[in-house]
Amino acid sequence: MSPTLTPIALIARALQRERTRAGMSLSSLAKEAGLAKSTLSQLEAGQGNPSVETLWAIANALNVPFSFLFETKASETKLIRAGEGTPVSADHADFRTTLLANCPPGVRRDLYRAEVKKGEIRSAKAHPAGTVEHVLVVSGRVRTGPAGMAEDLEPGDYYRYPADVPHSYESLSDNAVLVIVMEVQG
What structural domains does the chain harbor? Predict the structure, then answer.
């Protein structure tokens, strides 16, 4: 997210994001908020100068905190190499766990085991807005991530990245096994 966004541009992005997340049309949101559809359309286009009352009405209609209309909620990357992180040990067993990523409220996660063979790169198109992938390498070596941010990973490495942009998976060894968690907002 660009740090030079104007307040109205931030509001426009947040309004689109929250309305989409709520599954509401412009018409239904306008009706629920007691506003003209044209007003909402202008705001989503980054035009206009909304009052505090207008923004409160929108936030209430979307059932979100007022602050959500100003949040950028940019996806971030997180890379944890094997052996990194803060492990927590069990008292009565030889068992350690390291939290790689907690699940934020209102998020759905799907869990996959992926097997990748050396050769052709698997290019993935962008998933729906707000989608994040978590990749943990079980065996082998892979290069994965969004274009321009792909990382080389080895067994035990963890990488979180935005998946609402094109991304890829490439095995750097003959075979690789990954655990992929796809996280979708809403």
Answer: 7-70 (1.10.260.40), 78-185 (2.60.120.10)
